[in-house]
Amino acid sequence: MKIACLLGQGFEDSEFRVPYDRLKKEGYQVDVIGVKAGEELKGYKGKEKVKAEKGIDQVNADDYDALLIPGGQSPDHLRVDKRMVEFVKAFDQAGKLVAAVCHGPQLLIAAHLVKGRTMTAWQTIQDDLKQIGAIVKDEPVVVDRNWITSRKPDDLKQFSEAIVDHVEGSDADHRPSPRPSQSPAHT
């Protein structure tokens, strides 16, 4: 199972670290994808520094099973890059998991994907989503088909658990002992 993590400068430190560590602990490959391979990316709070393992020109959504979009300032920086937006669109068009937290849905907005979708985000982004036609719930985690969205750092444990549950459900043939409470990968 390969997971792409889109990351730019000023990402929210914990919104990268908590799900990243949880997915790695579960044994999944998580590639940090930035604008350029090797670029050092710094978290907004200065606690995390991460090198982009791959640049956006080196990757294809077909090579991944899921997409993680941490929040902070990163999504706002990335959404101006059409390559990043197209990468996000490709995951959604293929019905693959898209997990976005906090300001992460800004990339989904830029990809023109949110109208009619049920989701959550950081409080200020919730208003943007409503104006565009999304159905917004102010809940720690909202699952809508192949999307998992979350609001803020306080929700990261639940967000990470929802991602693992979804990935394990869609990867049941490859996991030694899937959880009995899994739901189907796509509804």
Q: State which percent range the strand residues make up.
A: 15-25%
Major sheet characteristics: 7 strands, mixed
What assembly state would you assign to the polypeptide chains in this entry? single chain
- DSSP summary: helix tally: 6
Range of helix content: 25-40%
Extended strand count: 11
Query: What gross morphology would you assign?
Result: globular
Mean pLDDT: 92
Structure class: alpha/beta
State the strand order across the main sheet: 5-2-1-6-7-11-10
Question: What Rg do the Cα atoms give?
Answer: 15 Å
In the predicted model, the low-confidence regions spanning at least 5 consecutive residues are: 172-187
Encode the helix/strand succession as letters.
EHEEEEEHHEHEHEEEH
Termini separation (Å)?
20 Å
Q: What's a concise summary of this model?
A:
With 187 residues, the chain is α/β, with parallel strands linked by helices. Helices cover 33% and strands 21% of the residues. α1 (13-25) runs parallel beside α6 (156-170).
Strand and helix layout:
Blueprint: E1 2-6, H1 13-25, E2 29-34, E3 40-42, E4 49-51, E5 54-55, E6 66-69, H2 74-78, H3 82-93, E7 97-101, H4 105-110, E8 118-119, H5 123-132, E9 135-136, E10 141-144, E11 147-150, H6 156-170
Parallel strand pairs: 1-2, 1-6, 2-5, 6-7, 7-11, 8-9
Antiparallel strand pairs: 3-4, 10-11
